[in-house]
Amino acid sequence: EKMAKYPGMRPRDVVLWEGFIKAHPDAFLSVIYDAHVGDPSAEPEAHDAMRATGAFDVCQWCVDVIAKTHDMTYVIEIKPNAGAGALGQALAYTKILISEHRVPNTAVPVVLTDTPTPILQTAARLLRVLIFEA
Question: Which of 2, 84, 111, 129 can bridge 124 by disulfide, Cβ–Cβ 3.0-4.6 Å?
Answer without folding.
Answer: 129
